[in-house]
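TA notes, week 10

Several of you asked for a full example with nothing omitted. So below is the full record: structure tokens for the whole chain, then the designed sequence directly under it. When grading your own attempts, check the secondary structure regions first.
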């Protein structure tokens, strides 16, 4: 594993540990009215989804819930804090930049409130919404699933037992809708 990837993981872990310490801070909710979600890739999600019927409805419900995060400012207004490091792994691709809302990192899985929103810069350098990540603390409860899709054990540098799952809502992922890394995401 490259030093860049290890440094990124260590920095992300440090950010998350610090954020756990301040997670009691009040969640900012001003300016979080949903906006039209035309920028989300509905057709790609439907085509790439292993989910069918009612479970595709769950994906559309998630898309509607995160549509307001078309900008990082909207994510910040909703209590998400930016991690300045872009996550990538040679040969696998990237995850992009994570905005994490520590008040949501707990043992409860809520499919319409992901703990992390992922962004990547477009060709002009503007951050664009690409995916979400769920982080659920494992306290001995049954492992969560997203419409039948099981979560991964661990996977994020959180210093407690947890499950995680990525959902690539706004950027198609050739590796799959729920794969952690997207080969089409680069860290500049």
């Amino acid at each position: 594993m490259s030093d860049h990837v290890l440094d990124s993981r260590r920095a992300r872990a440090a950010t998350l540990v610090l954020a756990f310490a301040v997670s009691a801070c009040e969640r900012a909710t001003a300016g979080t009215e949903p906006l039209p979600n035309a920028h989300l890739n509905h057709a790609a999600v439907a085509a790439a989804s292993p989910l069918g019927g009612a479970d595709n409805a769950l994906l559309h419900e998630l898309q509607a819930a995160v549509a307001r995060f078309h900008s990082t400012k909207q994510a910040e207004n909703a209590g998400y804090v930016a991690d300045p490091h872009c996550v990538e792994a040679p040969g696998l691709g990237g995850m992009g930049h994570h905005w994490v809302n520590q008040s949501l990192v707990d043992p409860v899985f809520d499919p319409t409130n992901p703990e992390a929103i992922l962004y990547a810069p477009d060709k002009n350098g503007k951050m664009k919404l690409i995916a979400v990540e769920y982080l659920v603390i494992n306290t001995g409860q049954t492992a969560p699933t997203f419409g039948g899709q099981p979560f991964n054990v661990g996977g994020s540098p959180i210093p407690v037992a947890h499950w995680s799952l990525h959902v690539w809502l706004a950027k198609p992922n050739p590796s799959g809708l729920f794969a952690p890394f997207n080969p089409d995401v680069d860290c500049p």
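The longest strand covers residues 127-137. Use that as a sanity check on your answer.
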